């Protein structure tokens, strides 16, 4: 059974070979420069450093892990928020040329645990058939970690992880908004760079789902406020325009159905072991050609709807009678319900709602199952691996935060594509890598592909699009995770070979 990740709740390893003594630090920090923000970071309330060794295919890496949380105050000194993060830095590297990537998931309301322990960090928690308990730690070293080519900073926005709002209801509403969220994250990045004397380091952003939405906004915010530029953005299953997402609508505009169709075709073909690049090309060509042309004829054109019904059945297995009822528009929920009634022997079944002691394995995991696994890992991960001490419970995802998020002018009309265009125009050296899963129904890949093709980037290869097997969290598949790492490594190495002085 293919399980859809809960809409918009997205976002976003054996034991260490040797550890060191954790060192707690409490020290005052300087205020942010005038004009940068009215927010100040008064001090580090906690900072714990440990030393480790990571064994990768290319050799062993000595690295330092720092788990900490910054205390944010307002200009008059009142409490505001605490933002927790985990930093992994390669030992004995030259900070002037060593890249650093700031990494976060989405939601909004999701912590960085997903990308940290499932894809990029030095440890990974496996998601396989041997995992019968969500409370048993199975962390192991991550052979696909990015630590050999960049330092890593995993950020948990306020309300996620150990990060929290401390300034009352006014501050809580501020941080639960598009603008307040970006202001706080930009303040954190500026302070992190200043505190570690890493202003000359090439900096990157990696964000998944709503984290991908944050990327362009953060890039433009840093450009305007402090003339600081990202060398590159990696947007993972990003939500760049919420008007193209298939949720909360009674009637889909034709372009929304067209953007979903290739993902439905990918799922159907994979269930039947027939997924090929050529099939996806065919689905994309139909979606952007005859399909949308017939949809634009309207719901009263029965001949157009009949053409659609026959072609949709071949691509997705959806019965023509259902397509006629929906007047040619694809019904995602109906498609998934139909899949549940049709067993696919080449794919595992998966149902997190069954009260059973074992869970059948599927490469595309349900968000709730993955969240339960990570929730069982994160407190022990911070306490045992990173020696971080707190009485708080790590919050992998906060659904209440997601429900109460303030979308400025409402969820529809919210988009980051125009800001991405502005950021890339302001810095002609910045490059972008977009990574998607072919069977993603939360942020369908073809919507992003069509949107990104509208950007005028001026140079070839400044914006690259990569497609992998899997859904919204495609990196839970081993093959996709390995391919994603290889593409990210090539992306970083290209940047280092052609680094612009504007990034120094």
From TrEMBL:
The keyword Protease applies. InterPro entries: AB_hydrolase_fold, Peptidase_S10. It comes from the Bacteria. The keyword Ion transport does not apply. One of its GO terms (molecular function) is hydrolase activity. Keywords: Carboxypeptidase, Glycoprotein, Hydrolase, Protease, Signal. This is Alpha/beta fold hydrolase. It comes from Microvirga terrestris.
């Amino acid at each position: 059974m293919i399980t859809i990740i809960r809409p918009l709740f997205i976002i976003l390893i054996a034991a260490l070979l040797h550890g060191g003594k954790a060192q707690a630090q409490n020290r005052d920090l300087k205020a942010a420069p005038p004009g940068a923000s009215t927010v100040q970071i008064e001090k580090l309330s906690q900072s714990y450093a440990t030393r480790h060794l990571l064994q990768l295919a290319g050799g062993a890496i000595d690295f330092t892990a720092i788990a900490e949380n910054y205390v944010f105050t307002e200009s008059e000194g009142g409490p505001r928020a605490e933002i927790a993060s985990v930093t992994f830095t390669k030992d004995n590297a030259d900070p002037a040329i060593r890249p650093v990537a700031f990494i976060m998931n989405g939601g909004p309301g999701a912590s960085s645990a997903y990308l940290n322990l499932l894809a990029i960090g030095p440890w990974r928690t496996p998601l396989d058939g041997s995992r019968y308990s969500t409370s048993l730690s199975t962390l192991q070293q991550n052979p696909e970690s990015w630590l050999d080519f960049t330092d890593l900073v995993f950020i948990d926005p306020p309300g996620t992880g150990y990060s929290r709002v401390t300034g009352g209801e006014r501050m809580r509403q501020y941080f639960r908004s598009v603008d307040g969220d970006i202001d706080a994250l930009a303040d954190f990045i500026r302070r992190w760079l200043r505190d570690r004397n890493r202003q000359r380091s090439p900096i990157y952003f990696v964000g998944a789902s709503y984290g991908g939405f944050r990327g362009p906004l953060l890039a433009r915010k840093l450009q305007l406020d402090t003339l600081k530029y990202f060398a590159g953005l990696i947007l993972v299953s990003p939500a760049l325009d919420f008007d193209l997402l298939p949720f909360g609508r009674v009637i889909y505009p034709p372009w929304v159905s067209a953007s979903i169709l290739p993902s439905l075709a990918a799922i159907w073909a994979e269930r039947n072991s027939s997924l090929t690049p050529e099939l996806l090309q065919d689905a994309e060509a139909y979606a952007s050609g005859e399909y949308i042309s017939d949809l634009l004829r309207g719901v009263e054109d029965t001949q157009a709807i009949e053409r659609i019904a026959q072609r949709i059945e071949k691509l997705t297995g959806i019965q023509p009678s259902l397509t006629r009822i929906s007047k040619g528009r694809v019904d995602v929920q109906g498609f998934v319900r139909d899949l549940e009634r049709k067993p696919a022997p080449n794919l595992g079944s998966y149902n997190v709602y069954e009260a059973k002691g074992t869970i059948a394995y599927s490469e595309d995991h349900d968000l709730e199952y993955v969240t339960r696994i990570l929730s069982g890992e994160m407190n022990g991960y911070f306490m045992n691996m990173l020696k971080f001490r707190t009485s708080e419970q790590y919050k992998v995802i906060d659904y209440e935060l997601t429900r109460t998020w303030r979308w400025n002018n409402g969820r529809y009309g919210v988009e980051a594509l125009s800001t991405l265009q502005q950021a890339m125009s302001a810095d002609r050296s910045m490059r972008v890598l977009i990574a998607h899963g072919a069977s993603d129904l939360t942020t369908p890949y073809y919507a992003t592909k069509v949107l990104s093709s509208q950007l005028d980037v001026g140079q070839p290869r400044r914006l690259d699009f990569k497609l992998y097997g899997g859904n919204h969290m495609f990196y839970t598949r081993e093959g996709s995770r390995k391919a994603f790492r290889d593409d990210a490594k090539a992306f970083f190495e290209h940047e280092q070979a052609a680094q612009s002085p504007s990034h120094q």
